[in-house]
Amino acid sequence: MKEKDILCDSGSLITLTSACMDRTLYFLHEKFGVRFIIPPSVEYETISRPLYGGLNHFAFSAIRIKEALNDNILTKIEGNVRSEAKRILDLANNVFYVKGNPLNLIQIGEAEMLALASSIDVNNILLDERTTRMLIEAPFKLKEHLETEFSATIMVDSDRMHKFSDAFKSMNVIRSSEIVIIAYENGFLDHFNSLKKEALEAVLYKVKYAGCSIRFDEIRQYIKTVK
Question: What share of the chain is helix, strand, coil (3-state, %, to 5)?
Fold first, then answer.
């Protein structure tokens, strides 16, 4: 396993750029040699589609992500993972059933990211999307959440669940909020001097509202531990 490699999902990069915190990637790359990897599908979703597909509300994020790619902070890696991604998609989207119908939990881009992570032996993935993260980390908690959401009993295909869990149980899922926290703990916000704790709290709320699945109570609990 390449411990300093982190494979990035589209949503997490958009969260960091929308919150103007993409410089944390530069900071961690320069300070610790962290390599942030993206597959071609993430390049398309975060750069090409917004810039050339008319998604103007994501265009500035796309420019910032393209700059990071040009600066070699992001590294694009190709991989022939289409068939493996389809297998992962079939597993994940047939784990849970409501009223006899399978629930589609992940999209092809997320499946391709997981397939690429396995193929290049990277266990760290930057992922803000809650459903995929819970499917990897806590599938039975996800089942409980879905039962509350649908107000119905969720049936489980145990065989598919175990196959998915066995494939990705070693994955270390990191959210954009945790990138911010790691950077903070290593001095990223020190230039705010006596206001750096307040700056951190503000940034954590910013990434939450930009799309990161961090809860309000998580923010409050972490801020209590910060000196």
Answer: 60, 10, 25
